């Protein structure tokens, strides 16, 4: 069965009804046609254009070319009456890309907006992150096929079309058939987020319980944590044991089973350490802020 579904009708792009706006997320490399072509049939109110920061430590010529395409795409979207948001992200880092796309999807869905993700206007690593984030958060992700590719990366065709040439902007785009990528339960996602934010990606069991009961997280069932743990001292051992059992049974067992965390021992103490798989899930949860964004914008 073909994983792609051809789409040239806005109403069939996604199955979920929405009452807000239609939003596109476009991780952008050296492309123009593949970024702009979908808007011929898939109208939108807003589009996030994700590209590397203006001050990135990249090859100056490559950065100059990227800035050319970012400005060109944003200018055309604005000309078409679509509000374009210039968002800067380290697209060469999969985790940063996952964080950036996921938090945008989560925030827009909370507003009742319909979100579509373009996987075809960027490099392979970025495309992987775009697909994963879209599938996890159950939004549409589409691919724009090219008719041809430019032969000279410094010629007029390149600066007009980008690396890929789409001859007919009315041709159907391709919507990936959705497949299910399950996130762990919300409380477990909080644990992954908290682990990710630590320098060594690890926490003791006591620290995990404290973070679940913090004002920032306020996980149900952990409201009495401040009266059980004062600073690093356990003042109510029965209460602490109850919370520890709840953490192990309800959250950590799930994360261990999926290889998102490891249980380690240091002396007499156990601690929980995030695995590489766990880092990926933390980044795609939509709970983490992007750390590599730059306030720089193309002038």
Automatic annotation (TrEMBL):
Domain of life: Archaea
InterPro entries: DUF6293_C, HFX_2341-like_N, WH-like_DNA-bd_sf
Gene3D superfamilies per the UniProt record, alphabetical: Winged helix-like DNA-binding domain superfamily/Winged helix DNA-binding domain
HFX-2341-like N-terminal domain ranges (all copies): 22-149
Boundaries of every DUF6293 domain copy: 176-285
Entry's transmembrane regions: none
Protein name, as recorded: Regulatory protein MarR
């Amino acid at each position: 069965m073909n994983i792609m579904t051809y789409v040239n009708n806005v109403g069939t792009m996604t199955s979920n009804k929405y009452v807000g706006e239609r939003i596109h997320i476009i991780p952008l490399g050296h492309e123009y046609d593949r970024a702009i072509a979908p808007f011929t049939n898939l109208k939108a109110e807003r589009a996030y254009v994700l590209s590397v920061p203006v001050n990135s430590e990249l090859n100056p010529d490559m950065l100059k070319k990227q800035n050319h395409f970012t400005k060109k795409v944003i200018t055309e979207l604005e000309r078409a009456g679509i509000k374009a948001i210039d968002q800067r992200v380290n697209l060469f880092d999969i985790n940063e890309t996952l964080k950036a796309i996921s938090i945008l999807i989560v925030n827009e869905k909370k507003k009742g907006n319909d979100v579509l993700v373009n996987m075809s206007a960027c490099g392979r690593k970025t495309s992987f992150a775009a697909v994963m984030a879209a599938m996890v958060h159950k939004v549409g992700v589409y691919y724009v096929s090219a008719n041809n590719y430019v032969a000279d990366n410094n010629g007029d065709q390149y600066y007009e079309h980008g690396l890929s040439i789409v001859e007919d902007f009315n041709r159907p785009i391709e919507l990936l058939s959705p497949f299910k990528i399950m996130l762990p339960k919300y409380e477990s996602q909080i644990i992954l987020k908290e682990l990710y934010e630590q320098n060594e990606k690890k926490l003791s069991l006591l620290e995990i319980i404290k973070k679940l009961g913090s004002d920032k997280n306020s996980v149900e069932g952990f409201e009495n944590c401040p009266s059980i743990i004062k600073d690093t001292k356990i003042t109510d051992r029965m209460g602490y044991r109850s919370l520890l059992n709840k953490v192990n049974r309800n959250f950590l067992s799930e994360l261990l089973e999926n290889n998102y965390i490891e249980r380690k021992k240091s002396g007499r103490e156990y601690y929980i350490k995030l695995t590489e798989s766990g880092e990926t899930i933390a980044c795609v949860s939509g709970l983490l802020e992007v750390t590599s964004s730059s306030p720089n914008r193309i002038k």
